[in-house]
User: Fold these one by one.
Assistant:
Number 1:
Amino acid sequence: MGLGNPGPGYAGNRHNVGAMVLDVLAERAGIRLSPGKGARSRALAGEGRLAGRRVVLARPLSYMNESGGPVRSLLDYHKLPATDLVVVHDELDIDFAVLRLKRGGGEGGHNGLRSITRSTGTKDYLRVRVGIGRPPGRQDPADYVLKDFSSMERKELDLLLVEAADATELLLARGLEAAQNDVHPRS
């Protein structure tokens, strides 16, 4: 599940980096994302194979803070447990262009994650956290995430999207711990 806000006005926002990564994954796998019918109509979704596994790639058509409903609908439709869910999302508490993988934990003020946790009844889902960094000075974080990437960030954005897609595939292919060993920087 790649998180973001719907519509072209939000397409380049930091908050939409999860949806951007999802587009890279869909292109790699040759999966066409299209609106579903009925309960599935609240997301763009497509099925196929990625990293040797059957996957459903999806992006909610709701606003970020209402992501949980579409996620729950897709899990129910495909009869998948929330523990199989992988959410790709922006992360303020990680420096720009840094990736982190984890299962569970808090939402850190991220309303999309909070909505998913409420709708699934668990925090025990996988996360691909794409660092967007903290806002400069005293800028409100809510304003910061709804701004497009800076010109300096845009120079690195394509590489970041590819690296986040690679990390997602590694997570699917090898599991969390092995993927973390490869993705997380050594200190």
Number 2:
Amino acid sequence: MSEWDATSVEGKDTILRVVREEAGRFFALAEPEDAWEAPTACAGWHVRDVVAHIVDTTEGYFAAFDVARAGARPDDPYGLPAMGARVNEQAISFRNTTQKELLDRARADFEKMQGILTALSPEDWTGFLVVHPYMGPVPAYFYAAGQLMDFGVHSWDIREGTGRNHAMSGDAADLLVPFMLVLWQYTIKADADLTPFSVGLRIGGRNGGDFRIDIGAEGMAYAPGDITGLPAVIEFDAASMVLTTFGRGNFGTVRGDVDLANRFLNLFFRI
């Protein structure tokens, strides 16, 4: 279903629509005065810090696009291992900013980023490379996925902090599944044991299916394919895979060798 594949131009309108929906939910959660210093699922972060993080991240995207359009040499990416400490430092630096000022800034940043992404030509959506502050050069469509990760996953974080039962939007989770496979490739621990082995993933949702995962000295490779006969298969619904990749919980059902499946899941640091 190409309209649900955000890596293709056919999926552009879909992901931008879903990002807008998730952003609307996010801002509604952050607006009440008594929510501002409420806890979230992000350790040590209040709602205000999550809003600040999205401001910092989105404004970093603006700078990245400016550099790419100017053909200038970008700064070296920080790398995902450095992401946790740096985004925390950036987020808490906004704690003296008022709720209204920070939310107004976040909304303005959101609209500006939507404008940048909407204006991309079909060729630029897939072919214009912009250096991500942590991941290095990625196609422009990845920034739409980054916005969806921020608003979709961090809305989940705010809801989790309320203590109420809740669930993640299927549209958001389905669109993010392909990007979770990429994130796994980028988040293998430096000291991981890469002695070769293979496992299968069975993922639900519009971008799901069966995937063969091969681990070896070069890292992780994946491809849709037959997982019959593999020693372990991990089954996820779309949201469970997203939340597992982001370290929000330990989800999934193992069929076969539980120890091998757990070895796979422990190859990665979580962001």
Number 3:
Amino acid sequence: MTKIFSEVYDVLEAYKTAAYEKDVENFLSLYAPGIHIYDCWGNWESKGISSWETTVSEWFNGLREESVLLEVTFNEVVIEKTSTLAFVHCAVTFTGYQEESGEQLHQTTNRFTYGLKKVKNSWSIAHEHSSLPIDFETGKGISD
């Protein structure tokens, strides 16, 4: 594994940890200040870190209130990179577990594309796009 590949993959690992710990500050630290996100859940679009912070805070607060641990798994990860830019596309599975019992509550898989840039020896997510295939008969997203 090349150093650049490893550094980009480390961002994904930090994403998983911050989501599991519901750590808003660490989660947001993975993103560039001018982040632009297209999301298939809740807010259609977030521009800038303050907009994204509102969404992430609501998400993590909801998980806390419902006592849910969120496990994030990255599948079929493909990373294309240069020394300062990287594209990642993958399937991301979000599995919610009841904190006390460990019972699985829900699971969904989305398609994600991340655009990362390296500034001052640190990689950050500059663009994120999540999507679901659409069932043409119902017009609804297919999450698994």
Number 4:
Amino acid sequence: MSVTKVETRQSLLEAARQIVAAKGYAAVGINEVLAAAGVPKGSFYHYFASKDAFGEAMMKSYFDDYLATMDDIIADKGKSSAERLMSYWQRFYDTQAADDCQGGCLVVKLGAEVSDLSEVMRAATKVGTTAIVDRLEQMITDGITDGSVSVGESPRMTAEALYDLWLGASMMAKIHRSAHHLDRAMTVTRQVLHT
């Protein structure tokens, strides 16, 4: 794929992320994404084989960026593992509290929707969320090792439970348009990690 084609493809994915985060996947038409990216109508299939392939690429791109941010947090050796974990959760909080608690997390916005609509998007979301939990587990394990974190369950179970907690809190924040549920998730997270 030429550099220009790669750049155009990425522009389409970035435009779609913003639109889909606001409207959901099924409500967004291909022409709306093309217009937002400044790409001529009718050229969509030069970049993606189908809307399903496009959705899968959008989710993979989202997780690539998300995981790169997590990797940056993990790599910050100027902080203890507990501080890195709480930096991650604070970033999660800030993202989900934005825009009247409408947030920008595609997992929160699309998780249930795409699981019913598209097997390839569901699979991409499963791979991405598993990678998030893997990194959380790593940070918890590092925290146990450096003594900045202690947990009552295994690092894996704790990582899964905390991620589930935050997804649910994000959904409730959207419904109530209030950060109250995110505040509670932060409090519970600190209690679970003993930070």
